[in-house]
Amino acid sequence: MHNLQLTEDQEMVVDTVRKLVADTVAPNAQELDEHRTFVRPWFDELAELGVYGLSLAEDNGGAGMGFVPYVAALESIGEHSGSLARLWIGQMQVVLAMEQAGADLDELAAGAKLGVFLGAEHGFTISEGKLTGAAELVPGALEADVLVVAAHDGQDLALVQVDAAACEREPVHALGLNSAACGRVRCDGVPGAALPNAAAAIARAELVGLLGVAAASVGGATGSIQAAKKHAGERIAFGKPLLVQDAVQRKLVESGRAASAAQQLTWHAARLSDLGEAAAAVAIEARIAAVDAMVLASDEAIQIHGGFGYTVEYHVERHYRDAAVFDVLDGGSGKLRDRLAAAQFS
Amino acid sequence: MHNLQLTEDQEMVVDTVRKLVADTVAPNAQELDEHRTFVRPWFDELAELGVYGLSLAEDNGGAGMGFVPYVAALESIGEHSGSLARLWIGQMQVVLAMEQAGADLDELAAGAKLGVFLGAEHGFTISEGKLTGAAELVPGALEADVLVVAAHDGQDLALVQVDAAACEREPVHALGLNSAACGRVRCDGVPGAALPNAAAAIARAELVGLLGVAAASVGGATGSIQAAKKHAGERIAFGKPLLVQDAVQRKLVESGRAASAAQQLTWHAARLSDLGEAAAAVAIEARIAAVDAMVLASDEAIQIHGGFGYTVEYHVERHYRDAAVFDVLDGGSGKLRDRLAAAQFS
Amino acid sequence: MSDTTTSAAAQVSDFRLTPELVEFQQMIRDYCRDHLGAADVVDREPRFPREAVRAAAEKGLLCTTVAKEYGGTDLGNLASCVMLEEINSVCASTGVTISVHNSLVNSLLGKWCTDEQKRRWFPKLVTGEWLGAYCLSEAFSGSDAAALRCEAKRDGDHYVLNGAKLWITTGSEAELFVVFVRTGEDRVKGISAIVAEASLPGVSVGKKERKLGLKGSSTTEIVFEDARVPADCLLGAEGEGFKIALDTLDGGRLGIASQALGIARASVDLIRGHLGQQKDHKGRPNASQPDQWQMADLAADLDAYRLLTWRAAVMRDRGERCGTESAMAKSCTARLANRAARAAVSILGQGGASGATAAERLLRDARITEIYEGATDIQRLVIARGLLA
Amino acid sequence: MSDTTTSAAAQVSDFRLTPELVEFQQMIRDYCRDHLGAADVVDREPRFPREAVRAAAEKGLLCTTVAKEYGGTDLGNLASCVMLEEINSVCASTGVTISVHNSLVNSLLGKWCTDEQKRRWFPKLVTGEWLGAYCLSEAFSGSDAAALRCEAKRDGDHYVLNGAKLWITTGSEAELFVVFVRTGEDRVKGISAIVAEASLPGVSVGKKERKLGLKGSSTTEIVFEDARVPADCLLGAEGEGFKIALDTLDGGRLGIASQALGIARASVDLIRGHLGQQKDHKGRPNASQPDQWQMADLAADLDAYRLLTWRAAVMRDRGERCGTESAMAKSCTARLANRAARAAVSILGQGGASGATAAERLLRDARITEIYEGATDIQRLVIARGLLA
After folding, report:
1. Of chain C's two ends, which shows fewer C-beta atoms within 10 Å, N or C?
2. Which chain C residue shows the shortest CA-CA distance from B327?
3. Domain ranges of chain C
4. CA C110 from chain center: how many Å?
């Protein structure tokens, strides 16, 4: 990861996460995904590393490291598990929204409780302290302890904290993120606590969500490319390894180019944010480019794998499904493009 | 140009170039292009600003500023004149190759002589001090004083300096870069001086060429987007400005995303190089992405202009032609992709 | 193109043209070989391809959409598509001139003229003594055609025309203009169609456009200053103009689709020739796989979109509505032409961009097909509207 | 599919199916409505769509490529394409089962069997009492099919088979396997085709694949351990196997192309339904233009690539070589199916990815069409080879 220029402390966090991924996540991700097993143990291991407080101010008990190590670490998780990456992202959204709102967040920052953020795109409303609305596809929903919701209160957006247990939740048979306990959430007048500083808190949750999905998707693209490169190096067709064919190389080059460009946008957005500059637009660009790169890379990786790629054992079909789910989260890439347009033209 | 983090001195150079572009280049670029007029006066004005020594070491009479201000300044030229941008790039290739070779470069760095670099892709050969070969499309060729050529000497690549006047040169009716005196060059045993340190010098010329075309193309994309945005804001269709249509906004957003990603790759490559790290692969990625972005942005800009876009008065058709020429220079984007593959897989 | 319902016998049977059409296609190929050699010169100078158009007239190619009783060959839309693909594969400037003459002007007149009007104009149009132009666009109405302002005021047995038309193909070369004018206030129902001869006082050629491509084709402004046009030059009834304009464009789009097919085919041929030359030391083909793939994808789309175009053409020949189908044909073929020409330049490399081959001209010529006779974006909305209806 | 040359009368006249085929298509639609309701269940459990296949057999859909004298309906390739598009637009697991049975197994047997062999197997295959499977791929020979190793050694009046076949569609459900085996050393000429019945000792179902999609379809390894197959089960002569395999795939690709068309159509229909619901407060459609454009482009390509597929099918029905044309059809339709399904998921958003609609299944099912019966990359090389020849 050249030129991201992490500090020594930051590098250490990232390395620790990378080790967890290599030792624990990578060898088991496919099997757990196939059985739709929720990976709470991995979430807890990340908690022990203290990563949920990574970008939290030191005054609030965090490491105060900003977003650069966050995206670097998420990239390595995304390489092997989109589900775990998405759980971390959700947790970070909640933690940083709560920090902005000045709310109590110790248990969340410690990972003792699992938090999930529901963005404004779901159209929840709050009236007289009661939250109403429904969301169709929410990673982490089935196992969440706390929901933090961007809800319309008639005028502006409000930030609302609710006890997840008070909501109706049911499993969905989602295309991907099978280890993330994805569910449908329905609140029919559930009591919720409105938090202060809603606008800034929601904006921060959105930013950390965009950056996170961007980084995880860059990772997913990289993971796909690596799997395909490995397979193509080993697989013999027409008397030679697949990898010597220029068409196979070209697929990998093009996937790599897409991942590389998305990675630069992601780092740029993270650095901008850490410098205190406006980063939302670049973060949206990064997220769109990264998800597209992951779709492309996993799609080509399946193709390079041929028949093997269509089976569940080679990881690449999982990346392909996860990429398609990333694409529709947070309002979906179409709506994100509309937001870029709105920022420029209205 | 957020977060490029130029020093004050660097910022000053870039601003001076930007002013020259705004005052002199932008208002006249289209007309001169239409008449295929060579823009030597602009080249000379850039010389007066001292930009050809921008990345040259201070010990060699240069400003020693590295590549970051180079790409920043070229971006602003590329916004309005691909031809002028390409002339600067060629001059820089020659100057930096000569520096690496330890050759005399004062007149070239001062812009008193016009230099053109011919890369290894043209397949020139040198034998017993005589240069032989031909190149079909060389910006600056018709007016060049000096050619610096990467030629095969039977074993390795050699760096050869020849007096341009000794070569056969004839105009080509090229698709674009009409103000850059593009020509065909033919050397049939022309005497040439082999310069030392060829491998490093050629690599440096290639790098500065890649970075330069990348930056100029990001500029060309930006220029196209700005022209289209202006037109769409003014043009009324179905009772409203074109710009309120979401499909028009989407075209501009997608063009902008492509330009933004290419810009990040370009900056990344320039920074890496300035840090003394290997930058060739990222520079190739940047160049491919940037040319693609310029093709996309100018193509969509023509479409947004409708019938106007097909006429020569609205700049965007010029960017479209220039982009197609950028695409085929330096071996062309296909061969550049092959180089990325070779670097990774062989 | 024309709305003549040609014979009930199928023109395309199991995806093959009838033997008559195959023979016609061969005749066109001979014409192209014999008369379109100057395509590059026409582009570079640039100049109007007068000889090529005259030769086309002599071969009866300027009246494929005119009924036989008025001197035409009445071959219909499909034959016109076959013809235009061939011609445009060699010279798009000649191609668009013939396409507009046939598929916009003659076709429109054949459908909307009275018998008397037909007898007045067709004798000159079918022989190519006169060329026709279709005057719809204005400076402030391109895609939004109904916003046109050029005005025709009734004055006795004349209409007095004032205003200007923009981007008129064959503008400086045509003797007859079909002009869409405002005769009333209603945005759509206030539009009428009228024939104005170029020789009338008050009709003049304005600004000539300098363009990216199609340089041999004349594209000009046509200016009307108190031009008195006899009232019997009105086509259909007052207020029918917009309907006439749009209906005609459904056919015109097939002409442009065929132009795009021709450009795409020429581009694929260039790529094929270039890759075919690349051999290893044993003389075996060794073009790069990615280049071969790109060629394969383009060739497949070329076949597919030709079928799409021909489908719309036979529908129109049968007198069926083909708005969606012709929009599909035009938007797909036009995008393909641009994609193919860009690929040709890119794959041919320096030789593609330097003018040493036709690739760079194809790239420039292709670009207009996404713009005129209904921009791609408009075609897509037409298709979407059909799907969502 | 079959190589029966159907009647000389055109099946597609001016791009329209004959009335008989239109009627057949309607019958298939009724079948889909009545028998494919469990498509989602078949995918989720997953389970083999036995009832749907049985119902198809009862309607005569498992013998469209079998001559009438052997109990088939002999409708040919085009009819099979029409049928498979319909079925796959609802349930691709059922679709591929029928496609393989008809367009690989029955079609191959009809062309290469002796009369005696036909009378032996067709009675069970046309009624669906038996299902067929086509066993070509092995663990070390996918796209490079001629590298196959599964061996058949002559021993008296038997061949003894040893080896394993991979990714065999309908593997665990089929009663009859067409197996490509190595009977000699020559890479190509050492390959033969033989029929092995599933009930033979030494023939067993190996590993069952868990897949991204087509979950209702059975995909397994088929293992041969000293399986003694009567020598009169050989198809054609020894050494003809590879020729038989490739020729059959030319037709099989049309089945997969039709599967891809069905998936693409279902995807476009989902998008259309979704965008059609988006209205402004006055009830007017107000879906975003970019979404509408995407739908329009997909719909146009759907029409274009269907024509491309049908063109290849009628060529095959006429007994013409259609290698390039069927490669074009398969590569274009397969890429379209994936593009369309991805667009459906993306445009439908959370509802597209959550399993609340069929979009996510379409995305998973579509993916295989670019892989099996000749990967897209191989199709492109076939096309390019044809162009460069």
Report:
1. C
2. C346
3. 16-130, 133-239, 242-388
4. 17
Reply yes or no on whether the pLDDT at C129 is more than 60: yes
For chain B positions 112-141, those within 8 Å of chain C (CB to CB) are 135-137
Neighbours of chain A (3+ CB pairs under 8 A): B, C, D
The domain defined by C242-388 folds into Butyryl-CoA Dehydrogenase, subunit A; domain 3 (1.20.140)
Query: CATH number, domain at A292?
Result: 1.20.140.10
Q: What tokens were used for B299?
A: 């193509």
Q: Is residue B312 part of a domain?
A: yes
Contact with chain D for residue B240, Cβ under 8 A: no
Chain B residues touching residue A250 (CB < 8 angstroms): 337, 341
- Which residues lie below 8 Å from residue C208, measured CB to CB, with a gap of 6+? C171, C172, C218, C219, C220, C221
Q: Provide the ipTM.
A: 0.96
**Active site includes C51?**
no
Sorting pLDDT into bands at 50, 70 and 90, what band is C8? low
pLDDT score of C142: 80
Q: Is D288 on the interface with B (CB under 8 A)?
A: yes
Establish if A247 touches chain C: CB-CB under 8 angstroms: yes
- B250 in reach of chain D (CB within 8 A): yes
Query: How much is the average pLDDT of A262-266?
Result: 97
| The domain defined by C133-239 carries CATH number 2.40.110.10 | yes
Phi, psi of A4 (to 5 degrees): -80, -15
Range of the domain at A219: 200-345
Residue A145 lies in a domain: no
> Which of D44, D166, D212 is the best mutation test for A, with the most CBs of A within 10 A?
D212
Q: Give the best residue of D278, D280, D289, D293 to mutate against chain B (max B CB count within 10 A).
A: D289
* C290-347: pLDDT as tens digits: 999 999 999 999 999 999 999 999 999 999 999 999 999 999 999 999 999 999 999 9
- Tell whether B229 is covered by a domain: yes
Q: Between chains, do D318 and C14 touch, taking CB under 8 Å as contact?
A: yes
* Burial of B259 from C-beta contacts in 10 A (0-12 / 13-18 / 19+): buried
**Interchain proximity C342–B333, CB inside 8 Å:** no
Q: How far is CA B50 from CA B54, B73, B108, in A?
A: 7, 12, 11
Record the pTM: 0.96
Ramachandran angles phi, psi of C220, nearest 5°: -140, 170
- Please give the DSSP secondary-structure letter assigned to residue A120: G
SS (H, E, C) chain D: CCCCCCCCCCCEECCEECHHHHHHHHHHHHHHHHHCCCHHHHHHCCCCCHHHHHHHHHCCCCCCCCCHHHCCCCCHHHHHHHHHHHHHHHCHHHHHHHHHHHHHHHHHHHHHCCHHHHHHHHHHHHCCCCCEEEECCECCECCCHHHCCCEEEEECCEEEEEEEEEEEECCCCCCEEEEEEECCCCCCCCEEEEEEECCCCCEEEEEECCECCCCCCCEEEEEEEEEEEEHHHEECCCCCHHHHHHHHHHHHHHHHHHHHHHHHHHHHHHHHHHHHHCECCCCCECCCHHHHHHHHHHHHHHHHHHHHHHHHHHHHHCCCCCHHHHHHHHHHHHHHHHHHHHHHHHHHCHHHHCCCCCHHHHHHHHHHHHCCCCCHHHHHHHHHHHHHC
Q: Is D289 on the interface with B (CB under 8 A)?
A: yes
A156 part of a folded domain: no
Domain tally, chain B: 1
CATH hierarchy code of domain C16-130: 1.10.540.10
Q: Tell me the pLDDT tens digit for each residue of C58-84.
A: 999 999 999 999 999 999 999 999 999
Mean pLDDT, range D27-52, rounded to an integer: 96
Q: Is A246 in contact with C293 (Cβ distance < 8 A)?
A: no
**Cβ contact (<8 Å) for D290 and B250?**
yes
